[in-house]
Amino acid sequence: MADTVLLVSELATNAVRHTLGTRFLCGVGLVTHGRLRLEMHDHDRTGRGLPRCEPGPDDEGGRGLFLVEQLAETWGVDRSRLTGGNTVWATMTA
């Protein structure tokens, strides 16, 4: 459960900090027995995708997608059918 909360937090933080939109839509759903899909839809229609970040060892931030990559079974980025912006999604075992 703690990993799920951390993933949602990281996806939401990235949507707030790194997109031009002022709102985002969060989705959590059970896709198969015991498997969750988390989605964060932003309203950034620039098409620029996700910014790449290379944090230094003393930087306090910049590791959100690294955490997503480590905690999720799979993850990715698609164009959102709901907002026209990006959808960053992750799947994990509940």
What attributes characterize this protein structure?
33% strand; 4-stranded antiparallel beta sheet; globular; 94 residues; alpha+beta
Major beta sheet summary = 4 strands, antiparallel
Alpha carbon gap, first and last residue: 7 Å
Low-pLDDT stretches are none
Helix fraction bin: 25-40%
Shape call = globular
Please report the number of helical segments.
2
Number of strands: 4
The percent range for strand residues is: 25-35%
Helix and strand content put the structural class at: alpha+beta
Mean pLDDT across all amino acids:
83
Compute the CA-based radius of gyration.
13 Å
The side-by-side strand order for the widest beta sheet comes to 1-2-4-3
Q: What is the oligomeric state here?
A: single chain
SSE series: HEEHEE
Describe the protein in words.
- The chain is of the alpha+beta class.
- 27% of the residues lie in helices and 33% in strands.
- It contains 2 helices and 4 strands.
- A 4-stranded antiparallel β-sheet has the order 1-2-4-3, with helices on one face.
- Strand 3 and strand 4 form a beta hairpin.
- The longest helix has 17 residues.
- The N and C termini lie close together (7 Å).
- The model has no long low-confidence stretch (mean pLDDT 83).
